[in-house]
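Morning. Coffee machine broken again, so started the prediction first thing and wrote up yesterday's gels while waiting. Chain of 491 residues, entered below exactly as on the submission form.
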Amino acid sequence: MVESVVMSENLIQLQRELQQQLPPEALLTHPAQLTPYECDGLSAHRQRPALVVLPESAEQVALVVKRCHQLQIPLVARGAGTGLSGGALPHREGVLLSLARLNRILAIDPARALARVEPGVRNLAVSEAAAAHRLYYAPDPSSQIACTIGGNIAENAGGVHCLKYGLTLHNVVALDLVLADGTQVTIGSEAPDTPGYDLLALLIGSEGMLGVVVGATLRLLPQPETVQVLLAPFDEVTAAAECVGAIIAAGTIPAGLEMMDRPAIAAAEAFVHAGYPDCAALLLCELDGSGAEVAAAVAQVSAIMRQQGATEVRIAATPAERALFWKGRKAAFPAVGRLAPDYYCMDGTIPRRHLATVLQRISELSAHYGLAVANVFHAGDGNLHPLILYDANRAGELAQAEQFGAAILQLCVEYGGTITGEHGVGSEKIDQMCIQFQDQALSQFHAIKAAFDPHAILNPGKAVPTLHRCAELGAMHVHRGELPFPELERF
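Came back before lunch.
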């Protein structure tokens, strides 16, 4: 109770200072103004912030972060709010720092194939700006029309083309950061390599816990000479899953290799009319490179698809048809929203060889929990996105959906995978971190956090659970004579 009073006094002091130092439109304090910031894409978790700040420069960001550090006020950085793990969930006694107004593309350097941008720049806007130079930015999350580069960096976002071209981590060469004490630093460089520790690998995907991104230098790629997309329907989900491994094993690395099951296919087709057939599972495979290279790959992959049980193989005849094939996949998330009042989007990754087995076990879990699930995922790199359908207006269904999701994540760990591929841990998967990592590893994560943020003001309570939390979770189940998520024992 005493701490809450102190925090309120500190927030009042901070608000008064910022009112004097920032433009009036940079501060939001009225409840009606704060409500739009109470959640990210994981809308089942909501918390109104005490104060929202919308800086317009790196210097203003540094000012806010420095004072939060000095006053020990929690601070959560936010991009476009499209994240799906509660990473931008506000702190009720803290500041929500929106970076939406830092939205300039500072430079496109075609000679070195680089782009310098502010964190609020939309993902797709980078490729649109680079297109005049026949360049593009490879990471392409499904939300790329809205999501921002800063948010992509926080979560190490991927997308359809991450199989061949990597995640955000592999396409960023330098970051401008504001550290927890307000210090501004640059990590990485535009040179091919830099001396010292590879801090970029540490900071990208750190979910706003180690610093606030105020600028990024991105690697651009040449637009490929030729692009072709194949669509292959299957009568069995397992056959489609096994086809994925067969394509990779043959030595071809597609630019993208995506899979959808029947519920997702039907929803996408009804939504965008992409021409998808009625089938149990669908593979979309994009191949790019020189004309001769793509022609050879198309012949090879088509043959493999047929050998693995594809009922047909469609090859996009025009760029418009190619775009339509992808439009259905890109629209799958909003399309599935038409199947139920609510859905819970999961994110876990497994080795490709276990795709068929894990999909079968997800189907069994669906029957066990009595909740339907639609599967849309980056099959080439084993990144699953099961969409669990439920109705929040029915008592207990949200909790049931979350239990189902937790069981899926445990399945991923059980089969040698991980609890997140690109959505991050945030507040959603923090208990599953106790399953993924042992105490020693978690202790090292906390040591890194303490080195960057000694007062633990940046996005507190996210991504890395305390050892006490993990002990409580384990003790709760031991007391009941169970293991965490014992539902899996019956399968």
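The mean pLDDT is 93. Going to sketch it on the whiteboard this afternoon.
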